Amino acid sequence: METSLTRVEWRALKQFTKAVFEKAGFTPEGAESQADVLVWANLRGVDSHGVQRIAWYLGLVDKGHMKPRANIRILKETPATLLIDADYAPGPVVTVMAMRKAIEKARSVGIGWAVIKNTLHQGAMGYYALMAATEGMAGIAIVCNPPNTAPHGARAAGVHNSPIAICVPGQRHQPLMLDMATSVAARGKIDVAVDRGIAIPLGWALDTDGKPTTDPKAAAVLLPAGGGKGSGLAMLFECLTSLFAANPLLAPVFQGKPGASVHRQNSVVAAVDIATFTDLAQYRQNADEIVDGIKALPPAEGFNEVVVPGELENRVHAERERSGIPLPAGTLQKLVDASKRFGIPLPAGL
Amino acid sequence: METSLTRVEWRALKQFTKAVFEKAGFTPEGAESQADVLVWANLRGVDSHGVQRIAWYLGLVDKGHMKPRANIRILKETPATLLIDADYAPGPVVTVMAMRKAIEKARSVGIGWAVIKNTLHQGAMGYYALMAATEGMAGIAIVCNPPNTAPHGARAAGVHNSPIAICVPGQRHQPLMLDMATSVAARGKIDVAVDRGIAIPLGWALDTDGKPTTDPKAAAVLLPAGGGKGSGLAMLFECLTSLFAANPLLAPVFQGKPGASVHRQNSVVAAVDIATFTDLAQYRQNADEIVDGIKALPPAEGFNEVVVPGELENRVHAERERSGIPLPAGTLQKLVDASKRFGIPLPAGL
Questions:
Q1: Are B42 and B324 a contacting pair, CB within 8 Å?
Q2: CA geometry: angle B72, B77, B82, nearest 5 deg
Q3: Of A130, A271, A212, nearest to B244 (Cα)?
Q4: CA–CA dist A117, A268 (Å, integer)
């Protein structure tokens, strides 16, 4: 599949991406985090959150809205919690730092809970949840942005399609990873439909008049997954992130405050240490057995197999590690532009 | 509405319920928790989790499966976390205790995270999340049971429709409360359809052959809310509760272990202290403004108003506090039976 696309070896792509962000003013460590988060998303097939974002990020830096060397400060700290002001740092830069600190705290008191205010696009939230799982912990990552999703029963945006990621370690199996938006479909899937010139299913989005639409170009407001369940989670995720950071993102838009719709994110990332509660090796085995059992269930009509959350992404990951990451022409052009701008050679093969 | 049903004053019903559980062997404090959780559910209109459960609970006690004076033990403890072995204590008895301790820890280090193993039916999880909100904290409560819900793409049960409740305090408004199962419809709603002899919508449940059904009597397996999102959350909730307690509830059923399907629950209840992060009065006001803004959105076609999670239950609560809790004949009979068995006079008016 995707053989008509140019493929690039992932390490070379990451090296290039890191070099671009260093030239854009990131610290070497910050550029490493930024590149790793983006290329990880590409490896897993989540291309909407991969290197195609480079141009957008560079634009945010150029406008001064994203600060590559922001004054990230810990505003409040306890043995178990952190409140971090990101000062408009790139999402991966501050969130990798925050999750590392949450993991340290979890190692010490069983849980670390870090609230982050005023960061920018964090990429795929699963990355941070996985950081905890890699350390033998459960990882949780939640984010909120200004509204883009209709609360159940409304025909205008009132919540963000706030994603949540939860990840725990297995043994034989890859970490069990849920990484989901609270909308029926992520915005990226609608963008893909626009690019392909195909319709979207009814139930994904509303147009600007609040009417259901199948035209991806007319899709203005996302619809929540599971009706009031998705939008209820999203509303409470704003309360667990933005309100804990005293930095509301929903209400200022309702109130028409200037600049309220400008992109920025608040977030919470948490780690819960398994060994504090129980035997880690046994936990891993128990996690494997859930996967084994669910996969052995009889498939529903129309399904060939039962897949667990993250499984399809893990397959893409394995394939792309071997065969390279396929890049559509538009994404390739963005890399060429960055290469020219900063005088950085393109990854081998491009 | 419901004027044909017998109504009982809620305090009298609670007093009666408490007396029943004391006679059944609960401590006075345990009986108080049990009665308060049940009658709170009735007040909010969640009658499936109210006093109609008395007979079932008494049966569990009679069989020795539920221990009114269980040997509840704290197995592990840090400044932020707890692992509690409930020893088959009634859900409210151990969970009220666990949330109180989580709140204490949150007051001290910003968060308290309590994992509970081997309890029985905890009732409406929102009750425990609300305990934290009442103390100026965010409350989170999650529970897992043996499987009753098909994972997305499967036609047999593989996860539980694990509910999650999240609650934060408002100021003018009632606490913002989400209390949702991860299935499309709770089992209780299907039971109501059986009682009424009406069909259930397609998409709620499968029959024992794994085929979609609209017959509530044939409904054997629940379907997850939002497809893989609901069942993904449910799978990870097992990992955050049962696996942290070294007490898996899903895999033993897959493996056909004897007794694996017997009702029991593992759970996590957590409190996050708002004042540790920010100004509580400001937080409350910010929470109010989310409610105000969402309620002011234009309703979607087919809706008269936009309601926020918990709002309808709050209205029922206010009405039933004033006018009493309506009891259907079947529930009334259960109260009469308990009254006779223990020689406790029925609440006034019954």
A1: no
A2: 60
A3: A271
A4: 9
Cα A247 from Cα B332, distance rounded (Å) = 50
C-alpha span between B266 and A131 (Å, rounded): 26
Nearest chain A residue (CA) to B182:
A229
Distance from CA of B283 to the nearest CA of A (A): 6
Q: Give the mutation candidate from B236, B241, B266 for the A interface (greatest A CB count, under 10 A).
A: B236
How high is the ipTM of this complex? 0.97
Q: Do A277 and B230 touch (CB under 8 A)?
A: no
Residue pair A88/A66 in contact (Cβ under 8 Å)? The answer is yes
Instruction: Provide the 3-class DSSP secondary structure of residue B289.
Output: helix
Inter-chain residue contact B180 with A229, CB threshold 8 Å: yes
- When CB atoms are compared, the residue of B166, B244, B290 closest to A250 is B290
Total length of chain A: 350
| Alpha helix positions (H), B88-186 | 91-109, 126-134
Q: Which of B226, B277, B307 sits opposite A230 (nearest CB)?
A: B226
Answer yes or no: do A245 and B282 touch at CB < 8 A.
no
Nearest to A109 among B79, B226, B239 (CB): B79
Distance CA A155, CA A221 (A): 8
Residues of B in contact with A81 (CB under 8 A): 109-111, 272, 276-277
What number of CA atoms fall less than 13 Å from residue B307's CA on the CB side?
A: 15
Nearest to A166 by CA among A157, A175, A154: A175
pLDDT tens-place values along chain A, 350 residues long: 444 689 999 999 999 999 999 999 999 999 999 999 999 999 999 998 999 999 999 999 999 999 999 999 999 999 999 999 999 999 999 999 999 999 999 999 999 999 999 999 999 999 999 999 999 999 999 999 999 999 999 999 999 999 999 999 999 999 999 999 999 998 878 987 888 889 999 999 999 999 999 999 999 999 999 999 999 999 999 999 999 999 999 999 999 999 999 999 999 999 999 999 999 999 999 999 999 999 999 999 999 999 999 999 999 999 999 999 999 888 999 999 999 999 999 998 88
Find the closest chain A residue to B82 by CA distance: A277
Whole-prediction pTM value?
0.97
Q: Token pair 């090796």 is at which residue?
A: A281
Instruction: Compute the count of residue pairs across chains A and B with CB atoms less than 8 Å apart.
Output: 276
Could you tell me the sign of the dihedral formed by the alpha carbons of B175, B178, B179, B185, in that order?
Answer: positive
Who among B178, B238, B298 is closest to A154 (CB)?
Answer: B298
A125 in Cβ contact with A180 (< 8 Å): no
Euclidean distance between CA atoms A179 and A177, whole angstroms: 6
